[in-house]
Amino acid sequence: MSKIPTFSLLFLLPATILGCPGTLDDPSRFFPQECADVETTLLVPRCGTLAGCHVADAPAGDLDLTSADIAARVVGVPATIACGGGFLADPASPETSILYLKVTDAPPCGSRMPLGGDDLTEAEQTCLLAWIAAQSP
User: Fold this and answer.
1) Where exactly are the structural domains of the chain?
2) 44-77: per-residue pLDDT in tens?
């Protein structure tokens, strides 16, 4: 078994720790975009179109989740349901947002959403939470 000369370790150790400089040409190959456009891939189909509840022409609870620019209608908007106050979407405290809480296992009020459809998966809930956190009022 051959030994690596000590002086060689002085050159290999920093390279091992620091890695190779540079950037990825296509980071999505290694870090997939799991939370693609939440508005069009999650809110519109799951809360509006499929469930038929939060559609533009007759939105349940006056909450339209199908028209363009959903964020403008939910971010910083006080919840109209009796869930102990709070905002529909609060980027400063996404985990207390009513929009998020209503899709969890134990919503603070009313039924879990979406009614009449499959529950959001844990990954979908995480994406919704991340989307709320990324919004600016």
Assistant:
1) 35-134
2) 998 887 667 899 998 988 899 999 999 999 999 9
CB 132 within 8 A of CB 94: yes
16-19: Cβ within 8 A, 24+ apart? none
Q: Are 85 and 79 in contact (CB under 8 A)?
A: yes
Distance CA 89, CA 31 (A): 27
Tell me the pLDDT tens digit for each residue of 19-47.
Answer: 445 444 544 444 345 788 999 989 999 88
CA atoms within 13 A on the CB side of 8: 3
Q: pTM, whole model, 2 decimals?
A: 0.72
